[in-house]
Amino acid sequence: MNVLSNLASFDPGGMSFKIADIYLKDKEIIPAPPKEENESQAPAGINEVKIDHDVLTSYCGQYELQPGVLVTVSIENDNLFVSAPELPKTPMITVTETEFDVKAISARVTFILDSGKVSKMKVNMNGGEVLAMKIPDFDPTKIDLSEFTGDFYSGELSTTYTMVIESGKLIARHFRTGDVMLNMTKPDQFSGNKWYFGRVVFTRDSADGKINGCKVSGGRVRNLRFEKAD
Fold first, then answer.
1. Which of 69, 149, 168, 191 has the largest CB neighbor count within 10 A?
2. pLDDT greater at residue 176 or residue 9
3. Which of residues 67 and 88 earns the better pLDDT score?
4. What is the mean pLDDT of residues 186-205?
5. C-alpha–C-alpha distance, residues 20 and 22, integer Å
6. 57 vs 17, which has greater pLDDT?
7. Cβ-count burial of 82 within 10 angstroms (0-12 exposed, 13-18 middle, 19+ buried)?
8. What are residue 181's DSSP bridge partners?
9. Bridge-partner residues for 151, per DSSP?
10. What is the DSSP string of the chain?
């Protein structure tokens, strides 16, 4: 089934799944989603390999699976959990000191160290392999969001997004497609809550260090340039 649209915010991929759900809702070929109750409790006996608490803690943090898509690894009672936009908080089953299984999605996660520190994780799923880089820790509360505000124009799209701050959050506002909520993932980089605005990387002038534009990625679009208006 092909779903096409010339409206950027339409999300044809998501719409195709919604249509499929309507036609297949009474069919048994669609497995029921995993129950989220007691999701913070790891099933008894799954972590037979004991790992030092400090090692487990070093795995915690955010990893960028693809532009704008973040995976979060957290710890509770010396058990690791993983969550992502389409994956609720799910236990990770210890296989070795660096390898973990995520049975809910039939994935094997391997943490990779560089110079003694965790730099990325490898995800094997559905016969494929993806490397997700770990995002360095930083304090977003110390970032002045006002320097990211203003009008940003794309010559390729002939349109302008206005960056504003509301309730302490940066928002990309457009008169036709509405608001995109932006969350800072690293200095000068944000993830958006719309598929067509998945990642926003702000650029700076080499002379004075001020924001001079941004590059937007989402869907099949990569690094679409927007210039900041004077």
1. 191
2. 176
3. 88
4. 91
5. 5
6. 57
7. buried
8. 171
9. 162
10. -----S-TTS-HHHHHHHHHHHHHTT-TTSPPPPP-TTTTSPPTT---S---HHHHHHH-EEEEEETTEEEEEEEETTEEEEEETTEEEEE-EESSSSEEEEGGGTEEEEEEEETTEEEEEEEEETTEEEEEEEPPP--GGGS-GGGG-EEEEETTTTEEEEEEEETTEEEEEETTTEEEEEEEEETTEEEESSGGG-EEEEEE-TTT--EEEEEEEETTEEEEEEEEP-
Q: Domains along the chain?
A: 48-137 (2.40.128.50), 140-228 (2.40.128.50)
Closest of 212, 78, 67 to residue 151, by C-alpha: 212
pTM here is 0.58
User: Cα(141)–Cα(43) distance, rounded to whole angstroms?
Assistant: 36
What one-letter code names the amino acid at 65?
L
pLDDT score at 86: 80
